Amino acid sequence: MARKKANGAQEISTAVAGPSSTESIPSPPSPDRPPGPLSLAPLPGTRDVVKVNNFSVTELKNACDDAVKRYLSRPELFKQIHQHTDVRLALGWLSVFVAGGTGLYGYKVEFEQSKPVVWAGLILYMLLTFTQTLYSYFVEGDIVFVGKRKTFSKRIITERITLSSRTLPVSFPPKSSTSAAAPATAKSIPPQYALALTYVRSTSANKSLLAKGKTQAEAPYSRFFDAEGYNGRGGV
């Protein structure tokens, strides 16, 4: 099987610092500033090539998300926080236990006698499932990575990043005043991978804010995958 160089994830992560940044992140003093994601060299060795279907934006996005998370989770960078996954798993398992317990009770107990408990179990199951859906949509949203790290230099400094991603659909460039003279078929902009990053740097158990910023960038998927859907092959 073909192998890929470890610069694929780093190339995707560089989109965070792209030209479409909305707010620059302040640069803290050197003694307190640990290595940044873009200052590290690619990992030595090789990795398996990632192959996706170029016609599936879901596959393209998931592959990019995995690469970014793999890169930012390096030991010298950030420790990933799985809070959103833990909450969804807890709600999911709780609803499974409620459904299983309700079904078992209805099987063991006579129908008329078990109706109040079965109804209560059904309502509780629906509430848990509804809560899980609301949490995924309104709280977790497009978040794909939450990382945290602490630096010890005269004081304890905590850094936290939250990374969100989404796919920008195919679009067409805005019409200009010279559009009448342009060809009827304008070249479309292919689907793009959009990243948004929020950075918070604090100390004294998050009581003293040192720096805070946001940045975002977009890049076409063709920047990360070749015509056959491979990432990291042939310099891609």
TrEMBL record:
Keywords: Endoplasmic reticulum, Membrane, Transmembrane, Transmembrane helix. One of its GO terms (biological process) is signal peptide processing. Residues 26-37 have a biased composition (Pro residues). It comes from the Eukaryota. It is a multi-pass membrane protein. The keyword Ribonucleoprotein does not apply. It is found in: Endoplasmic reticulum membrane. InterPro entries: Spc2/SPCS2. Residues 1-45 are annotated as: Disordered. GO terms for cellular component: signal peptidase complex. Its main location: endoplasmic reticulum. The chain crosses the membrane at residues 89-107, 119-139. Belongs to the SPCS2 family. Component of the signal peptidase complex (SPC) which catalyzes the cleavage of N-terminal signal sequences from nascent proteins as they are translocated into the lumen of the endoplasmic reticulum. Enhances the enzymatic activity of SPC and facilitates the interactions between different components of the translocation site. This is Signal peptidase complex subunit 2. It comes from Mycena venus.
